[in-house]
Design a protein that fits this description.
The complex is a heterodimer of chains A (400) and B (182). Chain A is mostly helical. Chain A contains 19 helices and no strands. Helix content of chain A is 76%, strand content 0%. A five-stranded antiparallel sheet of chain B has the order 1-2-3-4-5. In chain B, strands 6-7-12-9-10 form a five-stranded antiparallel sheet. In chain B, strand 2 and strand 3 form a beta hairpin. Classes of the chains: A mainly alpha (400), B alpha+beta (182).
């Protein structure tokens, strides 16, 4: 996501811009949380309010997205770094029999639904591919928080829910690597060498993460301060290099996380970097808001509603099948499905990628669609979880 | 009793401990160190959250549960086996014990039973290594050391005769531990 904003304007600069942006996100989140809306879309909303399309349009000082672009990129890198950190290939292999089937159902049900919606609304093959990703990927942040808040984390459905999320992490790493190459576009003659270099970089990084990371771990230092500074520098240098060779900085961040996760430093790094991730992720979400024109979101209301109406039930079904594959009762399987409905941060990362597309339709429509869709789905999914009892009775799914 | 462990990626770890029948105690240990404890009646019912503890508090509570401060063992009284045949036991002195109102010397504890009294607890006041002339009152807790047969003999002579039994938990044993910070 290089500077791809078409939005003009912005009177606030530097430190003040960043401060106002984070403050807006914090205020909206504080208000919205009272009515039970998850925080991810609220941060986006905070960004929308102080961005050029709302504050700028009414003549109040606003923030141009470019002001905080780099910090937003740090947010993306750290979000994916954390996925990598929690990602364990051994765990995936240990649960492969149940999980591979559950993950396959998840992918082959929900991705095509998104692709179909994209095609239905004339977004072309690339647009459909991007909508497919946005619709497919559930939100680890929103779902994990809801599982903990509602106490489902102690129930058997937590296992397939978190298992599917981990499998999605791997899929999204591959997907983003592909999507970056496809979005850059250009003639096949131009694209091929560039794509080869980008994919080569990521593959080399993935191998390094598996093979070299444990040996490099001692160089990350012993004190907490060294650990934070050095881990951050490794993550940013490598993801920055990825960006410069046309590869996905997010995927690079993911593999750096995998590498660190494979070392004994795993827990301490997670502990120390988590607050940084939280802070920079807020900047990223609010930055997405800065880029978002509410009028454009209203303009894609129909595709958003159609996508929501179709893809919420399909997630419930695919999640329900995952629950059955884990030998859960019908009621718990339904809960597994309901829990997987919220979409969030990863859909927004795909949106940010789409915004860099040279195709003006994709650059304009897909991000607006993603923001609208995430607003609806994160809210609807959270409500579905907290009202699970009622939904069970409504559907007549009660364990005897 | 079986304990089931499972990973909660992005959250931490979960341990399920089988209780009576189908009931299970579920402990969720977050990566942040927070512990949440749930109870689930059976496989079909939802877990009900009992309480949560910070990392430091959880360790302190865990240490108490483990019995590091106080161990009511399966035998009738608390005892601490020292190895070989030697052990230490705690007894509350019943009202009608021969020991009640006597000094250790007058009750002739050592000669009659072979066991020695190594401490007397009277309310909050603990007298370690009491003099032979030290008095023991009904309701005091005496800490006795000896071989198993000597300790049994002490029990038969001074405790059983009166029907006194287990010690009440004495808070000052725990005084050394603060809340562990939270």
């Amino acid at each position: 996501m290089a500077a791809g904003s078409t939005a003009a304007g912005g009177d606030l600069h530097g430190l003040l811009a960043l401060g106002v942006l984070i403050a807006a996100a914090a205020v909206v989140a504080a208000v919205g949380r009272r009515v039970g809306i998850p925080t991810v879309p609220l941060y986006v909303l905070g960004g929308v309010l102080v961005g050029p399309h709302v504050a700028g349009a009414v003549g109040v000082p606003s923030i141009a997205p470019a002001e905080v672009l780099t910090l937003a990129e740090v947010g993306v890198v750290l979000l994916l770094f954390f996925l990598g950190l929690e990602f364990s290939i051994d765990r995936l292999i240990a649960a492969r029999r149940k999980l591979s089937a559950a993950a396959a159902v998840d992918l082959f049900v929900n991705f095509p639904v998104g692709v179909a919606v994209g095609l239905l609304f004339g977004l072309g093959p690339l647009g459909a591919f991007l909508v497919g990703g946005i619709v497919y990927i559930s939100s680890s942040a929103v779902i994990t928080k809801s599982l903990v808040d509602l106490g489902w984390i102690a129930d058997p459905e937590a296992e397939p829910v978190l298992g599917v999320l981990v499998a999605e992490d791997l899929v999204i790493a591959v997907y983003l690597a592909l999507a970056v190459a496809l979005v850059a576009g250009g003639s096949p003659v131009d694209a091929l060498p560039r794509t080869a270099v980008a994919l080569g970089f990521l593959i080399a990084l993935a191998l390094a993460a598996q093979l070299l990371a444990p040996r490099l771990a001692p160089y990350l230092g012993t004190s907490d301060e060294d650990l934070v500074v050095r881990t951050l520098s490794v993550a940013l240098v490598i993801s920055g290099l990825a960006l410069s060779v046309g590869a996905s900085e997010a995927v690079a961040g993911f593999f750096v996380g995998v590498g660190v996760g494979a070392t004994p430093l795993h827990d301490r790094v997670a502990d120390r970097i988590a607050p940084l991730r939280d802070a920079f992720a807020v900047v990223f979400f609010a930055w997405v808001g800065l880029n978002t024109d509410p009028v454009a979101v209203a303009g894609v209301a129909v595709p958003v509603v159609v996508a929501a109406v179709v893809s919420a039930p399909t997630k419930v079904v695919s999640g329900g099948i995952a629950g059955r594959l884990y030998d859960l009762s019908p009621r718990r399987s339904l809960r597994t499905g309901l829990a997987l409905v919220p979409r969030g941060e990863f859909s927004l990362i795909i949106a940010a990628l789409a915004a860099t597309s040279p195709d003006p339709t994709i650059a304009r429509v897909i991000p607006a669609f993603a923001v609208g869709y995430v607003l609806v789905m994160s809210f609807a999914g959270t409500i579905a979880m907290s009202e699970a009892d009622r939904i069970e009775r409504l559907l007549g799914v009660v364990d005897g | 009793m079986t304990v089931y462990e499972s990973d909660l990626p992005g959250v931490g770890k979960k341990h399920e401990i089988e209780l009576d029948g189908e009931e299970r105690l579920v402990v969720v240990t977050h990566n942040t160190g927070k512990r949440e404890v749930f109870r689930r009646k059976n496989a079909d019912s939802d877990s009900v959250k009992l309480f949560e503890l910070s990392d430091g508090l959880a360790r302190t509570v865990g240490t108490v549960l483990e019995g590091a401060y106080f161990q009511p063992v399966a035998t009738e009284n608390i005892d601490t086996v020292l190895g070989g045949d030697a052990l230490i036991e705690w007894y509350e002195v019943p009202d009608d014990s021969e020991l009640a109102g006597e000094t250790i010397e007058a009750a002739d504890v050592r000669r009659r039973t072979g066991a020695s009294i190594i401490a007397v607890e009277h309310g909050d006041e603990v007298t370690p290594n009491p003099d032979p002339g030290a008095g023991v009152r009904a309701g005091d807790t005496v800490v006795v050391i000896g071989s198993r047969s000597e300790v049994d003999s002490f029990h038969a002579t001074f405790i059983e005769s009166g029907g006194g039994d287990d010690v009440d938990v004495d808070a000052d044993v725990l005084d050394g531990s603060d809340d562990g910070g939270s």
